[in-house]
Design goal:
Number of strands: 12
Strand order of the largest sheet: 9-10-11-12
Strand content: 15-25%
Radius of gyration: 23 Å
Shape: elongated
Order of helices and strands: HEHHEEHEHEEEEHHHEEEHHEHH
Length: about 270
């Protein structure tokens, strides 16, 4: 009965439980030590155990770190949890109020934040995490400008409110925002935003279809050199097996139905790449 209760808790928490939860389920210190020796519990952090096996998913690692310091996944780790940026190896970033939380743990990067309030916290997949808006704010100064821009764009793709969308200035950024709205309204699969392919960074990518869309505002793509550079990029991408679609401001803004229909055809035609 005790092990069943522990298993139920672990199932809700991506395979991990706290010492307090084990104690509440009726497993005291001696029993926990016995379970560890038998390979039924595996210590991940002080006060946090994996149930059954030590191999944790990303979600399990995030949950274990949050439990370990009594905080919320934040910064670069929260961006990965919200699917704004790809996950990276290394410690899990967790934020706690400046006067709260526990000491540093191996594999956990603790941020003590005076400004952290309850309104900045939520849960995703059951994991305590900073809100999208707080996550993007925390990324400023801790990631490159390119990654910050990508995170903001990806938040817009996913329909997550950040409150910072307008902080990225310029005609090109406005054009990209309009294209993302076009995709949502046409119910197209969400593309990845500002993605590197080899040495190049493309505006939008449907990876499984190997389809790239470049949105070309006149301000950044006028003149002979820009024309030649764009063709060189297209040739490099096509040599890697990608189809490239270039869209102007006038097409995105003035012909959204036509653009959406053309993209739907391209996405259907390239299903065989999956």
């Amino acid at each position: 009965m005790r092990d069943r209760r522990v298993a139920q808790i672990a199932a809700r928490q991506h395979g991990v439980v706290s010492t307090e939860q084990l104690r509440a389920a009726g497993l005291g210190h001696t029993v926990v030590a016995e379970r560890c020796l038998a390979g039924r519990l595996h210590r991940i952090h002080r006060g946090v155990y994996a149930v059954g096996h030590p191999g944790l998913s990303l979600e399990g690692r995030w949950m274990a770190a949050a439990i370990a310091v009594d905080g919320a996944v934040s910064h670069r780790s929260a961006a990965s949890l919200w699917r704004l940026l790809p996950p990276l190896e290394g410690p899990v970033h967790v934020s706690v109020p400046s006067s709260g939380g526990r000491r540093q743990r191996a594999g956990v990067r603790v941020h003590r934040c005076k400004s952290l309030e309850s309104r900045h916290l939520t849960r995703r997949l059951g994991i305590p995490v900073t809100t999208p808006a707080r996550t993007v704010a925390d990324l400023r100064g801790s990631v490159s400008p390119q990654e910050l821009r990508r995170a903001i764009r990806q938040a817009e793709v996913l329909g997550l409110a950040t409150g910072l969308e307008e902080s990225v200035e310029g005609t090109r950024s406005e054009l990209e925002r309009r294209f993302l709205r076009l995709c949502r309204r046409a119910k197209l699969p969400a593309p990845e935003v500002n993605v590197r392919i080899g040495p190049l960074t493309v505006d939008f990518l449907w990876r499984d279809r190997r389809l790239v869309v470049e949105t070309d505002g006149w301000r950044y793509h006028r003149g002979r050199q820009a024309f030649e550079d764009d063709r060189s990029r297209d040739l490099a991408l096509r040599s890697r097996g990608y189809e490239v679609v270039r869209l102007s401001y006038r097409q995105v803004v003035g012909e959204p139905e036509r653009v959406a229909a053309a993209l739907q055809r391209s996405l259907r035609a390239r299903r065989s790449w999956r």
